Amino acid sequence: MSLKYLMDENIDPAYFTRLRLNLPDLIVRVIGEPNTPSKGTKDPKILLWCEEYDFILVTNNRRSMPVHLSEHIDRGHHVPGIFILNPNLSVGQNIDELMLIAEGSFDDEYQDQIIFLPLTNIS
Question: Is-contact 46 57, C-beta < 8 A?
Answer without folding.
Answer: yes
